[in-house]
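re: ur question from yesterday

yeah so i grabbed the chain u mentioned. its 106 aa long if i counted rite. heres the sequnce exactly as i have it in my notes:
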Amino acid sequence: MRQINQPFDLNEPEIIEQPLDTDILCGKTKECISHIGSKSFRQVIEDHKELYDKCDSKLAKMEVTKRIYEMMLQRCNARFLKFDPELQGWQVLSGAQVRDKIGHAL
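ran it thru and got these structure tokens back, copy pasting raw so excuse formatting
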């Protein structure tokens, strides 16, 4: 992490020490699975599975994942986080990484 008198480095990843209840924790640990934001996310996924399965093209499926992503951002103010053991903190995933995770969840 950067020291107080050091200039801000745009390449330095933002580290989140304590996730919020609205955050979605990506991972297979008990902490990730039982987190309230992750539980809410799984419910949203469950609510959209039928629609996703009925999609007849890759583009249509991408639209569903995009809709879920935008809904989680706007409605829940959610961040998708993954724990980085080297940095000992949570990092925010990129939009592309999140849409990929949503696709896998569906």
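noticed a couple things. The chain has a mean pLDDT of 88. also Strands lie at 24-26, 80-84, 89-92.
anyway ttyl
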